[in-house]
UniProtKB/TrEMBL annotation:
Lineage of producing organism: Eukaryota, Viridiplantae, Streptophyta, Embryophyta, Tracheophyta
Superkingdom as given in the UniProt entry: Eukaryota
Organism: Sesamum radiatum (Black benniseed)
Signal peptide (UniProt feature, chain positions): 1-18
This protein's record includes keyword Disulfide bond: no
PROSITE patterns linked: RT_POL (PS50878)
Domain Reverse transcriptase, residue spans: 1-116
InterPro entries xrefs: RT_dom
Protein name per UniProt: Reverse transcriptase domain-containing protein
Keywords assigned by UniProt, alphabetized: Signal
Length: 440
């Protein structure tokens, strides 16, 4: 069945379950799903159902699945379907398993190739990434690859293996070091065996224009990819179920900018800490003020007002959950009379009201937000080198031209930086570079 047809079929299942839940008042949502009425998540041929652990709710799921099977002929695979219960539902375990006929499952489970976790992501959880990289490298054993060929394989194949994980988790530092170790060994040795690195990995990961090989820095790439989730929260992408859930159960009356970085799960704390790096690249353009929080969004040059003036809501009698529009009337600022000096400071240097809808703009690199733009935030550009065009030409060559050319040019630059920059020394060293490159 094609993915499009499967989506249509799953929509039928959703309607069946909605009808069952609506007609029967005995259904109870999961306590972390009731505010947004969430009971189902589906992608490809994987389906997750959520409810309170009680016989009535589980029976409604069973009835809906049975009706769907009668209409479509598609049945849940009892050998691959699992019922996951919290410890508080242990007394109902046997009853619920009998109703559904599923096996009992325990976290962590694999879903869409990723682990479903109830705790922090561990090094052991990420072992499949390391195994994939090692398997690819071992598969190339015995193949005579040039230095340029290994560089290209790292860029196009090995660096892409962890991207899927890097879009879902902030990887532990130890895991990133293990990945970089294997990439480094393959670059210099052609295998997973430890070899002598002739250039620091940080320099290898610089762009070609900066004297590197253009291999992506995994740590910065991971943060750049995860920043996409933070950006969706900042612009309040309401079409996203995840954004809707986070707004109701994590942020509540706070914003991304003022929520504590010490509460919540390990993954959430890691994600929210990226905000300080993104903040200089984001601008709030005030329209009618209905989309911005008066106290918790950084529409003011001073940042979120609640951080600068913790007693501001009390002194101004403006609720901490108030929208910015509460102090805007017909395109002008209309702050209530205040006498406390701290509150008076808030009304100084107010930004311009532009009218129309509120807008949040990415003013950082590349002009519009993307994972690539966020990558440059965590891996900022450095000084350019004058021989990048030669390096680009060498990268298209065969044999060891790239290897010797890159190392020689890099050494030449170091000579100059250390004061060995007389004309005779430059000519002598340039001849050595040419002989090495031409001999390849």
């Amino acid at each position: 069945m094609s993915p499009f047809l499967f989506v249509l079929v799953m929509e039928v299942l959703t309607l069946i379950l909605q009808q069952r839940i609506g007609q029967n008042g005995g259904f109870s949502f999961h306590w972390r799903c009731d505010r947004i009425q969430l009971f189902q998540l589906g992608f490809a041929d994987d389906l997750l159902l959520f409810s309170k652990a009680d016989p009535n709710s589980v029976s409604l799921f069973k009835e809906g699945l049975t009706t769907f099977a009668e209409l479509s002929g598609l049945q849940a695979n009892l050998h691959k379907s699992h019922l996951i219960l919290s410890s508080s539902a242990a007394p109902l375990r046997a009853t619920l398993l009998t109703i559904l006929g599923f096996q009992e499952g325990h976290l962590p489970l694999r879903y869409l190739g990723l682990p479903l976790l109830a705790s922090r992501l561990s090094v052991a959880d990420c072992h499949p990434i390391i195994q994939k990289i090692e398997a690819r490298i071992r598969g190339w054993d015995g193949i005579l690859l040039s230095f340029a060929g290994r560089v290209q394989l790292i860029k196009s194949v090995l660096s892409a293996l962890q991207v899927y994980w890097a879009m879902a988790f902030i990887l532990p530092k130890h895991v990133i070091k293990d990945i970089e170790k294997r990439l480094r060994n393959f670059l210099w040795k052609g295998s997973i065996e430890t070899g002598y690195a002739k250039v620091a990995w940080q320099q290898v990961c610089r762009p070609v224009d900066e004297g590197g090989l253009g291999i992506r820095d995994i740590h910065a790439l991971n943060k750049g990819l995860m920043s996409r989730h933070l950006w969706r929260l900042i612009v309040n992408e309401r079409s996203s179920i995840w954004v809707n859930w986070i707004s109701h159960y994590r942020l509540r009356n706070y914003s991304v900018w003022t929520i504590s970085t010490r509460s919540g799960t390990w993954g959430w704390r890691k994600l929210i800490r990226l905000r300080d790096s993104l903040r200089p690249c984001i601008t709030y353009r005030i329209g009618d003020g209905t989309s911005f929080s008066l106290w918790h969004d950084p529409w003011h040059d001073r940042g979120p007002l609640i951080s600068q003036f913790p007693l501001g809501p009390r002194h101004t009698s403006l609720p901490a959950s108030a929208p910015l529009s509460i102090v805007i009337f017909e395109g002008n600022w209309t702050w209530p009379p205040v006498t406390h000096m701290e509150s008076v400071d808030i009304t100084h240097d107010l930004p311009t009201i532009h009218g129309g809808p509120d807008r949040i703009r990415w003013t950082g690199p590349r002009g519009a937000f993307s994972a690539a733009a966020a990558y440059t935030v965590f891996c900022p550009p450095g000084p350019k080198v004058g021989w990048s065009s030669l390096l680009r030409a060498l990268s298209k060559s065969l044999g060891s031209a790239l290897y010797y050319g890159w190392l020689s040019l890099g050494d030449y630059l170091q000579w100059i930086s250390h004061g060995c920059n007389t004309w005779a020394q430059r000519v002598c060293y340039a001849k050595r570079i040419c002989r090495k490159v031409m001999s390849t």
